[in-house]
Amino acid sequence: MATVNKHLPGCVVTTDLAHAVKGAEIVVLCTSPEAIEASGSKLAPLLSPDVVVTDAGSTKASIVARLEGDLGGRFIGAHPMAGSEQSGIAAARADLFDGSVCILTPTSRSEPTALLKAGELWKSAGCDLRELSPSVHDRIVARTSHLPHAVAAALVHAANRDEAEIEEFVGNGYRDTTRIAGGPAGMWAEILLGNRAEVVNSVQDLMVELTNLKASLESDDREAVEAFLEEARVVKSYQRRQA
Questions:
Q1: Do residues 194 and 33 lie in contact, with contact meaning Cβ atoms separated by under 8 Å?
Q2: CB-CB contact of 58 with 149 (8 Å)
Q3: Structure pTM?
Q4: Is the pLDDT of residue 10 over 80?
């Protein structure tokens, strides 16, 4: 059964996969990582050989391996680096991808025509394109996306450990840093576990940095504390100029 979506005029919503992909030239999978992986075998018999499939999953190595196995080189892994802690169709925005980076993760199996079509799709949505291998994608994104979410959740736990009611006393620093902790727990559990080796490595590096800062604070070493903060400020300023 198909219905018109009131939040996105002109769009039709259906739970019938065959109806959803009928007549499609390109299919975009925008569900959780595990659901994306499970969809390839269901899609394969429904699509003609020239239909391109891409996705928006936050992990890539396992998704690409599974979907290429089911769909071959017409599957092009992609990760648009956009979104918020909100979920559901009501949170959709027409400008969601404007100016964001979309990472494509082609492999030696990727069909050139499929890569071109997938890239054109994400560019038409407003994205700037980059290409990485699936494994390099997972290593980098573990630090730029997955670790920040884990840190936001950890900060919420740490800040509320001894104080039950702190919300009226927090400033923008806490609000900005913890905003993404409001995202859907089930999906983020899939992401963190799906990229667990790289996430564990990034968490370990963070623990080293925090341990060093803790030691400097305990020894009342102002010079070391200031150097820690200044180095971060310089790096962040450089990154802002490059953006």
A1: yes
A2: no
A3: 0.88
A4: no
